[in-house]
Amino acid sequence: MAKIIRIKGEILGKDEPMVFTKEYNVVKEDDALETMYSEMGSKHSVKRAYINVLEVSEISEEDVQSPILKKTLEMY
User: Fold this and answer.
1) Domains of the chain
2) Cβ burial, residue 9 (10 Å; 0-12/13-18/19+)
3) At 8, which helix (H) or strand (E)?
4) For the chain, counts of helices (H) and of strands (E)
5) Which residues neighbour 6 within 8 Å (Cβ) at sequence distance 6 or greater?
6) CB neighbours of 52 closer than 8 A, spacing ≥ 6?
7) pLDDT by position in tens, the chain (length 76)
8) Measuring CA to CA, which residue among 6, 32, 11 is closest to residue 21?
9) 51 touches 9 (CB < 8 A)
10) According to the UniProt entry, where is the signal peptide?
11) Is residue 71 a contact partner of residue 23, using CB atoms and an 8 Å limit?
12) Which among 21, 27, 43, 74 is placed 20 to 30 Å from 64, CA to CA?
């Protein structure tokens, strides 16, 4: 069964860390982490060592904040 995982973290940069929150609908928590590392590294040209994960939590459908994920969940 799929879970909704919220990942909070920061990307270390030259000036201040960039804080982010990402939400994924995945089967395993590890899949969410791998997808997040891949997306953030690709978009921001940063290596995984510069991405700090601060919190990983499973959330309910009602707690989803991402508009794209909300629309996806409404389709099912």
Assistant:
1) 3-75 (3.10.20.10)
2) buried
3) strand 3-11
4) 2, 3
5) 21, 22, 23, 55, 56, 57, 58, 59, 63
6) 9, 10, 11, 12, 17
7) 789 999 999 999 888 999 999 999 999 999 999 999 999 999 999 999 999 999 999 999 999 999 999 999 888 7
8) 6
9) yes
10) none
11) no
12) 43
Backbone angles phi, psi at 58, to 5 degrees: -90, 135
Q: Which two tokens stand for residue 3?
A: 């879970």
Which residues face 6 on adjacent strands? 23, 57
Find all residues with CB under 8 Å of 43, minimum gap 6, and list them: none
Task: Count CB atoms within 10 A of the CB of residue 24.
Answer: 20
Neighbours of 3 (CB within 10 A): 15
The pair of three-digit structure tokens given for residue 55, joined into one six-digit string:
């919190």
Tokens 């969940």 found at:
73
